[in-house]
Amino acid sequence: MTVLTAPETEAPVGGAALTVRNLWKVYGPRSGRHLEEVKAGKAPSDGAHTAAVRDVSFDVRPGETFVVMGLSGSGKSTLVRCLNRLLEPTAGKVEIDGLDIVSMPQSQLRELRRKDWAMVFQHFGLLPHRRVLHNVAYGLEVSGVPRGVRDDRAREMIELVGLKGVEHKYPHELSGGMRQRVGLARALAVRPRLLLLDEPFSALDPLIRSDLQDELLRLADVVRQTSIFITHDLAEALKVGDRIAIMRDGEFVQVGTPEDIVLRPADDYVRRFAVEAPRAKVVRAGTIARAAVTLSKSENLEAGLTKLAGAEGGAAIVSGEDGRALSVVTELQLLRARKEGLRTADLLTGEFATVGEDENLGAVMEKLVATGNPVIVRSASGELLGLVDHSAAVAALTTASPSA
User: Rounded distance, CA 68 to CA 62, Å?
Assistant: First the structure.
C-alpha cells in the first residue's frame, strides 16, 4: 500500500483543543434535582436515576489521540456523545477551541458537526444505495461543497486509507474491514479538527482490527487532527493512544501515558488491566534507563570499582579520549579483571549495543540477549541517558498482582 503524505494543495488542518470540566450526565425524569442531591452528599430521593458520567474533567491537546478505555457500562460512550452534544450534558463545561459547546445554539452546533468535527461508530453507517465514492463525499455534499471538489477530495481520502480502486463499488461488495475504512475516509474527508471514534474496530476480526489500528496511527501523522478514541480493549488503547483515561462507573480512575498506566497503575482496578498489558511493546528504553557511570579507558580498575560501588545496576560505559563509547563493563567483569591483573583498557573487546530513547523494551531485550551486556540509551539528539541492564528489563516486565 502506498504511504501518502498530506495533500500539498492545502496545509494540514490543525487539531482542536478540548477542555472538559465537571461534566455530568444523569438519566431520569428529574436529573437536575438528583444531581443536586448527589453533590450535596444526600441519599437520592428515588432510584429512577442513573449517573452515567460523574464529574469528569480533562484536557486534550491539539493533535493528540486521547483514549477513553473502560468496561461495558463504564460511561465511555455516553461521555463521547456529550462532547458534541449528541447527548445533552446534565451539568459541566465542554469547550472546543475555546467555544462553549454546552450553551451553543443548535444552528452553530450543526455547522460545526458538518465542518469541524466528525464521528466514526462501531457500526459503519454507510448508505447502502451509494457507491464508495459518494459515501465518502456525503459529508461534503451536505455542506454544499461543489461536486467536482468533493469527488476529488473523496478520491484523496479513499487512497489515503488504502482503498484506491473500489470507488465505484457498493458497501455490500466490501469486507467488514474495507467498510470501516470507508467510514474512516468519510470522516476524514471534511478534514475535521476533532475526530470522535466510538469503538470503531471492535466488531472486526483481530487481524483486520490490528491492520486498522496501524492505519489509524499512520493517519494520525498525516492528518494531525485531534482524536478521542473509545475502546474496551487495553491493548488497543495502549497501541493507539498518546494518553489514556481509564473509566469506571462514570468516573476517571487514572489518566496518563501508556507507560504510566502499565508501570504506575493508580489502584487495583487499573492494575488488573496492567497485568495483561503487552509491556514489551509499551515501555520505552528512555523510561527505564538507569543513570550510567562512565569510565575512561585509562582509568585504573580500582577507580572504576569505586565509582560503581554506589551506582544502581552495577555497569559502566568505558569511553575513549573523545568521549565515544568503546565498551560496556559490569562490576563483576571489573572484579575478575582485577583478580587477573588486567587493566581497564583490556576490557574493550565485548559487544555492546546502543538504542534510542523511544525504542521499545522488546527491541532492547533482543540486544541484551545478543550482546550479553547492558544496552546504552541515547536521546534523539545523541545525549547519553543511561543503561538498561537485565535487572531493569525484568523489573519493567513485572507488575505487582492486584490485592485480593
Answer: 17
**How far apart (Å, rounded) are the C-alpha atoms in residues 48 and 28?**
6
pLDDT at 351: 83
Which DSSP state fits 347?
Answer: G
Taking the CA atoms of residue 28, residue 32, residue 34 and residue 35 in that order, the dihedral angle to the nearest 10 degrees is: 120
pLDDT digits (tens, 9 = 90+) for 71-121: 999 999 999 999 999 999 999 999 999 999 999 999 999 989 888 999 988
Task: Give the predicted TM-score (pTM) of the model.
Answer: 0.83
Q: Count structural domains, the chain.
A: 2
With contact defined as beta carbons under 8 Å apart, do 374 and 316 qualify?
Answer: no
Choose the final residue of a domain: 277, 298, 330: 277
- CB atoms under 10 Å from CB of 268, counted, come to 12
Same domain flag for 297 and 260: no
Domain boundaries, position 316: 286-397
Which of 36-40, 100-104, 168-172 is predicted with the least confidence, judged by mean pLDDT? 36-40
Indicate if 273 and 293 belong to the same structural domain. Answer: no
Answer with the residue of higher pLDDT: 329 or 3: 329
More confident residue, 142 or 173: 173
Q: In terms of domains, do 182 and 265 share one?
A: yes
Pick from 381, 382, 376: nearest CA to 326: 376
Return the closest-CA partner of residue 227 out of 83, 126, 394.
83
Residue at 122: amino acid letter:
Q
- Based on the domain organization, do 246 and 299 belong to the same domain? no
Residue 3 resides in a domain: no
Rounded Cα gap, residues 207 and 321, in angstroms: 51
The per-residue pLDDT for 43 is 66
Closest of 132, 141, 193 to residue 168, by C-alpha? 132
| CA pair distance 189, 50, nearest whole angstrom | 37
Provide the CATH number for the domain around residue 373.
3.10.580.10
Whole-number pLDDT of residue 133: 96
Q: Looking at residue 56, which CATH number applies to its domain?
A: 3.40.50.300
